[in-house]
Amino acid sequence: MATSTNRPSRQTGPEGSDGHVKRAILEKYAFYRNGEPTLQADIERAANVVHVEPGSRFFDVGQPCAQVALVGQGSVRVFLASESGREITLYHVAPGE
C-alpha cells in the first residue's frame, strides 16, 4: 500500500500552468532530463498531474499497476498492513527518487 505523507501544493490554473508544473516535476528525474527531446515530448504528452491528499491511499496490495507515479512534492510512504491493522513501513519515496 502507498499513502501520501506530506501535504502537496495545490496547483491550479489554466493548462499552461499545469504544463509548467508537469515539466518542473519531470525535471527532478534523470531519465527525463537525460532523454532525447522527442522522448521528453512524448512523456509530457502522456503525463498527468495528480494531487493526492495526505493520508490518502492510492495503491493497494494486489492492485494492477497500469501507470507510473512520480513524486513531485512531499513524500509517499509505502507500507504493508497485517490483518490486525498493524503497519510496517517499507520505505518512503521523495521527489526525484
Please explain how this structure is put together.
The chain is of the alpha+beta class and 97 residues long. Helix content is 27%, strand content 20%. The chain contains 3 helices and 4 strands. It has helices spanning 15-26, 30-33, 37-46, and strands at residues 2-4, 57-59, 76-81, 87-93.
Which labels suit this protein?
97 residues, alpha+beta, 4-stranded antiparallel sheet
Number of strands: 4
Fraction of residues in helix: 25-40%
Q: Overall mean pLDDT score?
A: 83
Q: Write the element-wise H/E pattern from the N-terminal end onward.
A: EHHHEEE
Main β-sheet, in a few words?
4 strands, antiparallel
| First-to-last CA distance | 18 Å
β content, as a range?
15-25%
Condensed summary:
27% of the residues lie in helices and 20% in strands. It has 97 residues and is an alpha+beta fold.
Tell me the layout of helices and strands.
Blueprint: E1 2-4, H1 15-26, H2 30-33, H3 37-46, E2 57-59, E3 76-81, E4 87-93
Antiparallel strand pairs: 1-2, 1-3, 3-4
